[in-house]
Design a protein that fits this description.
The chain has about 400 residues and is an alpha/beta fold. It has 14 helices and 15 strands. Strands 14-13-12-11-7-10-9-8-15 form a nine-stranded mixed beta sheet. Strands 3-2-1-4-5-6 form a six-stranded parallel beta sheet, sandwiched between helices. Helix 4 runs parallel beside helix 5. Keywords: NAD.
């Protein structure tokens, strides 16, 4: 265990920033201490003094970066600010852990990634805490091993994001194009978009139907139905919304030699074929087909199924990422999620929006970043409440 200590600066003392400050101050993050807090809201100064007496407070995050009080920062601020603040921190030699999503549009994320790449001496990570969830780390290892063969199809229905109107009404920036940059895709679903491409591979194309202000009085998307193309014949579908009070969380991944079903991010059913599916198909006689259709075939000759139940690890995941971040700064421990990987989810989310706006399939490999930004700015201008982006 390293005796080195990373002094973390919290930019934005909201719900998330307050949680991080608490776990660090309580000594729950090995190799890290609470260095300082920055927030533009004067009320947060009193809150910080009450919760964390003696910890320096700044009303300007740049002043905090220049203070000598911090070695690293975490950006718990609105999505549009993640890239800008990360670039500023890294430019001053301060390690940066950016919150998800990495940004709203790919142009700003590409600028952040390029700048970080020019400063390899500075750690750049992203808070993809779901990558520490044993459900998904175990699946990642299984898929990477190649035991199940190549991906054929995957679907994720993730509608456990029910949000009543009062949720949107509490802040003027929520679910706006200029303040948040989108709805369910940029607020609730970034973790699933990251996990999906982390497990299955980065999609090459996307076609999507989105509903904007469908069941809520908002400008942005609250209903998403997207189809992606992974290349080589593999496809996938992604469904999410914020108006399903019952909610479903079901991930399916079909491979040449098996299938994985994840329910509620807790129950995992893994079915392993005795041979790859094409070999099973080619080896079946007409008599076998007859037995199969009449339920007289012994399925254990074809496949075996394993069911795993996982306990919830809610709360521990953020601590794991913070601990890993500190370990990378202190000892060079590999990151759980390199900050540069954040662009994949941003490209996928904005590709879904652009597809819905234009009615066409969007190429995610040769992504039309400028077209997306132009379309986003049209919507920001129409709102009339926020500056356009560049």
């Amino acid at each position: 265990m390293s005796e080195k200590n990373v002094r973390l600066g919290i930019i934005g003392l909201g719900a998330q920033g307050g949680m991080y400050a608490g776990v660090v101050a309580d000594g729950k993050v090995a190799g890290m201490s609470l260095g300082a807090i920055a927030d533009i809201d004067p009320a947060k100064k009193e809150l910080a003094a009450e919760k964390h007496p003696g910890v320096p407070f700044y009303d300007d995050y740049v002043a905090m970066l220049d203070s000598g009080d911090v070695d690293a920062v975490v950006t718990t601020v609105p999505h549009f600010l993640h890239a800008e603040m990360t670039i500023t921190a890294i430019g001053k030699g301060i390690h940066a852990l950016t919150e998800k999503p990495a940004g709203v549009y790919t142009k700003q994320v590409e600028e952040m990634n390029s700048f970080a790449a020019e400063h390899p001496e500075t750690t750049f990570a992203i808070m993809f805490n779901q990558r520490t969830n044993p459900v998904y780390t175990d699946l990642k290892a299984l898929i990477t091993s190649g035991e199940l063969g190549k991906l054929r199809h995957t679907s994720w229905i993730i509608t456990t994001w029910w949000r009543p109107q009062a949720y949107y009404d509490q802040s003027a920036w929520r679910a706006t194009w200029g303040g948040e940059g989108g709805g369910v895709l940029v607020n609730q679903a970034p973790h699933q978009l990251d996990l999906w491409q982390w497990l299955c591979g980065t999609p090459e194309k996307v076609f999507a139907k989105l509903a904007f202000g469908f069941q809520r009085d908002i400008a942005t998307e609250d209903e998403v139905n997207a189809v992606v193309d992974f290349g080589d014949g593999a496809t996938g579908s992604f469904i999410t919304s914020t108006n399903d009070i019952i909610g479903t969380d079901r991930l399916e991944m079909l491979f040449d030699q098996g299938k994985v079903v994840v329910e509620g991010s807790k129950k995992v059913t893994i079915t392993r074929l005795k041979q790859d599916e094409r070999s099973l198909s080619d080896g079946m006689s007409p008599e076998d087909v007859g037995r199969l259709f009449t339920g007289r075939i012994n399925t254990s000759e074809l496949y075996e199924t394993e069911v795993k139940e996982y306990e919830s690890v809610w709360g521990k995941q953020h601590i794991d990422v913070l601990t890993n971040f500190a370990a990378n700064v202190n000892d060079g421990t590999p990151l759980i999620a390199d900050g540069a990987e954040g662009i994949n989810g941003v490209r996928l989310a904005s590709g879904m929006q652009l597809s819905a706006w234009t009615g066409r399939e969007i190429d995610l490999v040769d992504y039309p970043a400028e077209e997306y930004l132009a379309e986003l700015n049209k919507r920001i201008e129409a709102e009339g409440s926020f500056p356009t982006r560049s």
